[in-house]
Specification:
Layout: H1 10-20, E1 23-28, H2 34-49, E2 53-58, E3 76-77, E4 87-91, E5 109-113, E6 124-127, H3 134-144, H4 151-164, H5 175-186, H6 191-199, H7 204-215, E7 218-220, E8 225-230, H8 232-238, E9 260-267, E10 271-278, H9 284-290, E11 294-296, E12 299-304, H10 308-325
Parallel strand pairs: 1-2, 1-4, 2-3, 4-5, 5-6, 8-9
Antiparallel strand pairs: 7-8, 9-10, 10-12, 11-12
Length: 339
């Protein structure tokens, strides 16, 4: 296991900290996804089983497809935290700033993540880039704490893994990934029903947004690279919200020729946010790092304070070069030069 710990054995250090402390705050990155929410709630249920006091506070609300799952209504949405806690768990978040919350610096921070580029900002840092989801690390922690997997714990661990692997299509899936899923289903959860709730509970606005995005999609490098542009105007026209955008970036990858997808979106507070997805051997985290971001070979991202047109112009040739050099690229005609 690849780790960057503040101790030779971070898992056991975290276990010992939990054993000696009572009040815990849990958070993750702004605009939390399935892995963020699933990891938080699985750990929260486990800590409460030990008699601990637990609160989950995030900058943004969970995506709507998760609202009906146990514990989700108890998640608090706020911009700052100032109550007393014995320790703060920050799950799958590269920095405290990415949480979007203020006031976290005062706490004893336990940083658990599986993304390349984590800043090791905690008093305890547990980093494992071989995990398919942060939920895998949380599963190991729950086992180390000696907590039996209940249906609630299993449900959220499964959601974390299901969503962060893109429905078991991304890299970093190993035999331990499926062992966690086996254990989760052994508790009695309905994996098919969870998948239907996650993937088939979308709004009509999301459907319209998907159509609009695909209609204006830019394809370059002989259709190997797809570029999607999203702004508030498009959300308003389609009657959709930011929650409706999750997972849309993966749709172009369903085309055989498309290897890499970039979704660029404007953010008034942050500038331009870029999400990158890929298949085959196209390692998009290499590109993300050039802009100060990170992630995994098939899923990465970054944020820059530049206009979206400037970012697109810088990004396109890098993505074309990436698919040119990828060993797993489908064979085809030579790439056309970008205009």
């Amino acid at each position: 296991m690849t780790t960057r710990p503040s101790s030779p054995d971070p898992l056991h250090v975290i276990r010992d900290v939990v054993g000696t402390r009572q009040r815990f705050l849990l958070t993750s990155h702004a605009r939390p996804d399935g892995d963020a929410i699933g990891s938080q709630l699985a750990l929260a249920f486990a800590l409460r089983a030990l008699g601990k006091h637990v609160r989950i506070v995030n900058k943004d609300a969970p995506p709507p497809y998760l609202w009906e799952f146990p514990g989700v209504p108890d998640i608090e949405v706020a911009s700052s935290v100032d109550d007393d806690f014995d320790a703060l768990f920050v799950l799958e978040c590269s920095s405290l700033e990415r949480t979007g919350l203020t006031g976290l610096e005062r706490y004893f921070v336990i940083n658990i993540d599986h993304h390349v580029g984590n800043g090791a900002y905690g008093a305890i840092n547990w980093f494992d880039e071989t995990a398919s989801a942060c939920g895998e690390l949380v599963a190991d922690l729950i086992d180390a704490l000696g907590v039996t997997w209940t249906r609630e714990v299993a449900t959220h661990l499964y959601i974390a893994i299901l969503t962060d692997t893109g429905g078991f299509r991304h890299s970093h899936i190993t035999e331990r990934t499926f062992e966690y899923c086996r254990r989760a289903t052994a508790v009695g959860l309905d994996a098919a029903q969870i998948a239907r709730t996650v993937y088939d509970s979308n709004s009509v606005g999301r459907l319209k947004l998907l159509g609009a995005l695909l209609n204006q999609m830019e394809l370059v490098a002989d259709n190997r690279v797809a570029v999607l542009i999203l702004d508030s105007t498009l959300l308003n026209v389609t009657g959709s919200s930011s929650h409706d955008t999750e997972g849309l970036i993966n749709v172009p990858l369903s085309a055989k020729d498309v290897q890499v997808v970039a979704l660029l979106r404007t953010d008034d507070a942050e500038g331009t946010r870029v999400s990158l997805r890929s298949k085959y051997d196209a390692d998009v985290q290499v590109v993300a790092r050039q802009f100060g971001g990170g992630g995994h070979p098939n899923a990465a991202g970054f944020t820059v304070r530049e206009p979206i047109d400037v970012v697109r112009a810088r990004l396109r040739p890098l993505l074309v070069e990436l698919v040119r050099s990828s060993e797993g690229a489908p064979k085809g005609a030579p790439y056309k030069e970008l205009e």
